[in-house]
User: Fold this.
Amino acid sequence: MSEGTGKSRLRISFVMVGISLVALVVTYASVTIAAAWRAREQMPRLAADSLVKALRIYHQQTASFPATLRDLEARVWKHQQSPDFGVDGRSLTVANYDYIYYPVDANTCTVWIVPVGPRREEGSTHFLLLTPNGLRRWKGAPLTLDEVKKLPSAVPQYREMALLGMTEQPSIDLNKKQ
Assistant:
């Protein structure tokens, strides 16, 4: 009788070891996947295309670019809950990027796009000069907080862009049919 009890205890021990190993593997996989999701969420993701599209729609409707992003929200985006556009209505944070909007005149606006968040060093700073007919783009390394505070509100000169480490990218003709 004790021989059967010993075999039964041994089987239960093997079953418990198996269950423990399965639980360990599942836990390790869950933790690894959760860490990867968190890392991906912290990575800056550029959403400039949708901003440029919305600005172009606004310009087509009104023949000028909006004075603030609040005007763009009211006419084009129309979210159920309006995003925070900052005190002056010219900034927006989306997917670990700060978008800083400056209207220059009725037919020109600029947008600084600066990475933020814990993985900001893995993103790039972008500068867009948008007109109804074209888009000029610059790209560079992430800016420091001091550099962001000193960003020019008007169209910067080439010398200023070079000092910030920004290089011009190929321009985009917005009148060309795709």
User: Anything to note?
Assistant: DSSP finds five helices and six strands in the chain. The first helix runs from residue 2 to 42. The first strand starts at residue 91 and ends at 94. The mean pLDDT is 87.
